[in-house]
Design goal:
Shape: elongated
Number of helices: 21
CATH topology of the largest domain: ABC transporter transmembrane region fold
CATH architecture of the largest domain: Up-down Bundle
Helix content: 55-70%
Structural class: alpha/beta
Bound molecules: adenosine-5'-diphosphate
Radius of gyration: 35 Å
Strand content: 5-15%
Strand order of the largest sheet: 6-9-10-3-11-12
């Protein structure tokens, strides 16, 4: 199941061929743009860090004053001043640190909120085919884990870069003020320390990227088996142990990758720590020589070496930050990948349709699924406003697909689909979908109250309207018999309701929406006769005065249809009333007899 290229890669390459070129290159401007709304706070963080770095210099400078001035001159007052200043400076620096942390969280959490929102709302606008081609678990992983790890980048990496740079700059100024010869020596050592570390970044980036992809797979596997339908499948086929094995294998692969990431980090740390010892050793050598032969004071030497750690630690940390940035880029890349996918958009100058008569016309329509399979071919028909058309035909003939083209859940590649005289591709998606109500085979209900599920169709509906719709859909009495009535919470996918009840609730939902055009995909599973007749009765008000496209499985619906379209391999091969078609003695007659 998990072999072959990851589905999301297939999908994104299908939609965004030029994207492949960008691999490994994140546009800095986009990351920068995320920070822009928070620039004032970011500036505050910057100011506080600068404040802290300057204060951080004071201990070394005060040491110089104590060793070279106060102590030799027996100046106790100067000694006290130096000591008090030392304490005050460190207190002030800590206070600044607290406030800086606060501002920094504001920036980090703010950016997370913005990214989360734009990612989720972008996903809502993605076409249906994205969701049929991508595993839910993978989408969840990007929306939650990836976005959250951006916080790390912002609150830790950003601050550590700024802090380190400012510490280096302030320290450089201080050491040059103390002794320029020693300063030059200490700078010369830096490239020797840093250069060997560059390639580590790339390794780390690759390792992290692989880890993330594996996590996607894990999440998808978990999600698939832990959903209600998934778990029923697992249990009914007694697949627990093989699922365990599959999960164990994935987890083992992830483990190996994580160990790899950790080890790249280890080698890297070891390299840094051994480098950091070289610098001070050189300074003791040269500085000691200068102290012996050239009159450099002990105070200068001691304070200089104290300052050196303020130079080398940030330099080596910056080399480490490079690793962090590079792997953080992998996260941004994954988020931007999703944000870059083409969403459903209204064409320029799209018309907003208000009230339509409800005529539906297919004009030489051809449709292929993204996998290249042609399912609808040169299809033409007209459905008169207010009439009911039943699509019948063998399973897989393309009936559902045809109906999905009307609300543009999928887009036909050739031909035109018209509602009244509006081309569906020339009107806004929102106004198009406002006109259409869909009752699909699989009724989806949110894990919420019945009332909330119904209001999803019309937010401002009054209680009377809701009850009226439920009465018409033959579900009111069932709801009233529940202990909490309309406030009863229905489980994910409405699992506390029977199939027939769910369908009637779905019918009530569409009645509330009150669209001009109705698409009804009748459930193939047959219900008991009582439920059957309840639904049949509910369908009457549902279809009343609307243009209805019904993927029909019930004989009663088919016979009641104004016209029947017999579909085979994406074409309407026969059409007419039940009587006409029986008289014609074609596919319909054979289907009817088989029924
Ligand atoms: P019907 O409703 O008549 O049973 P469908 O419209 O559901 O038929 O499917 C028609 C054909 O399109 C089937 O062969 C099916 O395998 C294929 N199909 C359906 N959905 C997709 C999809 N998302 N991607 C690729 N092929 C699909």
């Amino acid at each position: 199941m998990f072999s072959g290229p990851p589905v999301h890669l297939m999908w994104s390459s299908m939609y965004n061929p030029e994207k492949q070129k960008l691999k490994g290159h994140v546009e800095w401007r986009r990351i920068w743009a995320l920070f822009m709304p928070y620039w004032k706070m970011q500036l505050g963080v910057f100011g506080l860090i600068l404040f802290g770095s300057v204060l951080g210099l004071t201990p070394a400078i005060l040491t110089l004053s104590m060793i070279d001035k106060a102590i030799p001159a027996h100046n106790f007052r100067l000694l006290i001043t130096d000591v008090v200043l030392m304490v005050v400076a460190s207190l002030a620096a800590s206070l600044a640190g607290v406030y800086q942390g606060y501002l920094n969280s504001q920036v980090g959490e703010g950016i997370i909120r913005d990214l989360h929102t734009s990612l989720v709302s972008h996903l809502h606008k993605m076409p249906l085919e994205f969701f049929t081609a991508t595993k839910t678990g993978e989408i969840m992983n990007r929306v939650s884990n990836d976005v959250e790890s951006v916080d790390n980048v912002i609150t830790m990496t950003m601050v550590s870069i700024i802090t380190n740079i400012l510490t280096i700059v302030t320290t450089l100024i201080a050491i040059f003020a103390i002794d320029w010869r020693l300063s030059i020596v200490s700078i010369v050592v830096v490239p020797v320390m840093v250069l060997p570390l560059w390639p580590v970044g790339r390794k780390m980036y690759d390792a992290r990227k692989k880890t993330r992809a594996k996590r996607d797979q894990m999440q998808a596997a978990t999600q698939e088996t832990l959903s209600v339908s998934g778990i029923v499948l697992v249990k009914s086929f007694v697949r627990e142990s093989s699922e365990k094995k599959r999960f164990y294998n994935l987890a083992t692969e992830l483990m190996a990758l994580e160990i790899n990431v950790a080890m790249v980090g280890r080698w890297f740390l070891m390299a840094i720590t051994s480098m950091v010892t070289i610098g001070p050793a050189v300074i003791w050598l040269v500085g000691g020589w200068l102290a012996i032969y050239d009159g450099v004071t002990v105070g200068v030497l001691v304070s200089f070496v104290a300052l050196l750690s303020r130079l080398y630690t940030p330099v080596s940390a910056l080399a480490g930050v490079q690793v962090q940035i590079v792997s953080a880029l992998a996260v941004f890349e994954r988020i931007f990948d999703y944000l870059d996918m083409k969403e459903e958009r209204d064409p320029p100058g799209a018309t907003v349709i208000e009230k339509v008569e409800g005529k539906v016309t297919f004009d030489d329509v051809t449709f292929r699924y993204p996998n290249g399979k042609t399912v609808v071919e040169h299809l033409s028909f007209t459905i008169e406003p207010g009439s009911m058309v039943a699509f019948v035909g063998p399973s897989g003939a393309g009936k559902t697909t045809i109906t999905n083209l009307v609300p543009r859940l999928y887009d036909a590649q050739e031909g035109r689909i018209l509602i009244d005289d509006y081309d569906v591709k020339a009107v806004t998606l929102a106004s198009l979908r406002e006109q259409i109500g869909i009752v699909s085979q699989e009724t989806y209900l949110f894990h919420d109250t019945i009332d909330a599920n119904l209001r999803y169709a019309r937010e401002g509906a009054t209680e009377e309207q809701i009850i009226e719709a439920c009465k018409a859909a033959n579900i009111h009495d069932v709801i009233m018999a529940m202990s909490e009535g309309y406030d009863t919470v229905v489980g994910e996918r409405g699992h506390k309701l029977s199939g027939g009840e769910r369908q009637r609730l779905a019918i009530a939902r569409v009645l509330l929406k009150n669209p001009r055009i109705l698409i009804l995909d009748e459930a193939t599973s047959s219900l008991d006769t009582e439920n059957e007749s309840l639904i049949q009765a509910a369908l009457v008000p549902l279809m009343q005065g609307r243009t209805s496209l019904v993927v029909a499985h019930r004989l009663s619906t088919i016979i009641a249809a104004d016209r029947i379209f017999v579909v085979e391999q994406g074409r309407v091969i026969e059409s007419g009333t039940h009587k006409d078609l029986l008289a014609a003695d074609g596919l319909y007659t054979r289907l009817y007899q088989a029924h």
